[in-house]
Automatic annotation (TrEMBL):
Organism: Thalassotalea loyana
Pathway: Cofactor biosynthesis; adenosylcobalamin biosynthesis
Lineage: Bacteria, Pseudomonadati, Pseudomonadota, Gammaproteobacteria, Alteromonadales
Transmembrane spans: 6-27, 62-83, 163-183, 204-230, 250-269, 298-318
Membrane topology classification: Multi-pass membrane protein
Cross-referenced Pfam families: CobD_Cbib
Keywords for this protein: Cell membrane, Cobalamin biosynthesis, Membrane, Transmembrane, Transmembrane helix
Designated name of the protein: Cobalamin biosynthesis protein CbiB
Length: 319
């Protein structure tokens, strides 16, 4: 009975979601500028004002990062929440907020362009394209390094900017989804991998990791299910050590195993080497063919997500 009572809401959410997906897919073909780039600029300017790693202690930097979250997010969310009462068509308001919340639509096209540039030995173009989607420095990356970085970006962008947003939207509403996306944008701008944000970015990293932990494990299990018949149990045994860790290593490790390539390792951030966990070390280094395979794997996960969503909608209708 409860399912039946919620049916109009579930159907409405699904229609809004599909409409936004179609609209944003079409718009991205003409412009890949994310609508939250202004908020990202604000986050960078705020950090320049309050983050002083050369003068403040580690504890002061952590407190500054925490305070920055509270002075940035609540005012925006309160304004959006109050404005919602003046909207005559709630579905249009939900669609607009979801449009801002969801992202990562131009990644497949850009990944293909990077692969083509590497194949044509136009490394400068490949590095420029990669820099627009990566936090790390790309100037010194080899073709293999560019391939690895792009593959990691594909799965993480899909997780953070689409999969988590969809789960939050369908389980709550678009206001909560845009709230998460703003937090994610803060996390990207104040990422602890950058030396200047080692301590300032810790609070937002913990918040985002807590939000994405369960969706990351769900997506990882979905990825694992797509490898049934291809050393399924071995992949689980190799990756399960990351399952309860508060980061995305479980998903990235499974992605490396599914593609049969090596991911992770050392990367340059603000001209400084950051040693990260390396995944699937015994496999071959990533190359341009793996970029295409990663594209296909992400597309499979997208279709898997749609099928599961359709199943639950059907279950609601039958109930």
């Amino acid at each position: 009975m409860q399912w039946f009572e919620q049916l109009p809401f579930i159907v409405s959410q699904c229609i809004v979601l599909m409409s936004v997906f179609i609209l944003k897919t079409l718009i991205t073909r003409f412009s890949d500028v994310e609508p939250l780039h202004i908020f990202a600029f604000f986050c960078r300017q705020l950090a320049e004002k309050v983050n002083k790693p050369d003068r403040n202690s580690e504890r002061q930097q952590v407190i500054s990062g925490l305070v920055s979250i509270f002075i940035t997010l609540p005012p925006i969310v309160i304004i959006l929440w109050l404005f919602e009462d003046f909207v005559l068509v709630p579905e249009l308001w939900q669609a607009m907020l979801l449009y801002f919340a969801i992202g990562g639509f131009g990644l497949k096209s850009k990944s293909t362009q990077i692969a083509q540039a590497i194949r044509g030995q136009n490394n400068y173009k490949a590095k420029q394209l990669a820099q627009s989607m990566l936090l790390r420095k790309t100037d010194n990356l080899s073709p293999l390094g560019l391939s690895k970085a792009n593959i990691e970006a594909q799965i993480l962008h899909f997780l953070q900017q689409q999969f988590v947003v969809v789960i939050i939207f369908l389980s709550t509403d678009a206001l909560v989804a845009i709230c998460y996306r703003l937090l994610l944008e803060m996390h990207h701008q104040w990422n602890v991998k950058q030396p200047d944000f080692n301590h300032f970015g810790k609070p937002i990293r913990i918040v985002v990791n807590l939000i994405t932990w369960l969706p990351s494990r769900i997506l990882g299990i979905m990825l694992l299910l797509t490898t049934i018949g291809q050393n399924f149990l071995l992949k689980w045994r190799l990756s399960r050590g990351h399952f309860f860790v508060l980061n995305n290593d479980f998903l990235v490790h499974l992605f490396a195993l599914a593609l049969g390539t090596n991911l992770g390792g050392v990367a340059m951030y603000q001209d400084k080497k950051v040693r990260r966990v390396s995944f699937n070390d015994s496999a071959k280094p990533s190359d341009i063919n793996d970029i295409a395979n990663a594209n296909k794997q992400v597309l499979t996960l997208q279709l898997f997500t749609i099928i599961i969503g359709a199943f639950f909608v059907s279950l609601a209708i039958v109930s």
